[in-house]
Amino acid sequence: MVKGCKLAANNGGNDNKAVQSAGIIAVNKLLEAVEEIVKNIVKNIVKNVIKKVKEEMDKTRDPKAVGQQ
């Protein structure tokens, strides 16, 4: 299926289409996996940023923190 780092097919007529189809399916699955990874990373980053902002806002709302400044 792979020849010289490229998708390869036998000399048959329909084999080329079958190999292309298999390659497209594999690439689509890979893209879906990468998309899920990116979504999870972004979700975690946003969650951490929101948590940090809330912590900082709570610090500024704390009357002791205001009196100490």
Automatic annotation (TrEMBL):
GO cellular component, one term: cell outer membrane
Name under which the protein is recorded: Variable large protein
Alphabetized Pfam families for the sequence: Lipoprotein_2
Main location: membrane
SUPFAM superfamilies: Variable surface antigen VlsE
Coiled coil regions, renumbered to chain: none
Function: The Vlp and Vsp proteins are antigenically distinct proteins, only one vlp or vsp gene is transcriptionally active at any one time. Switching between these genes is a mechanism of host immune response evasion.
Subcellular location as annotated: Cell outer membrane
Keywords noted in UniProt: Cell outer membrane, Lipoprotein, Membrane, Palmitate, Plasmid, Signal
Source organism, top-level taxon: Bacteria
Topology with respect to the bilayer: Lipid-anchor
Protein species of origin: Borrelia crocidurae (strain Achema)
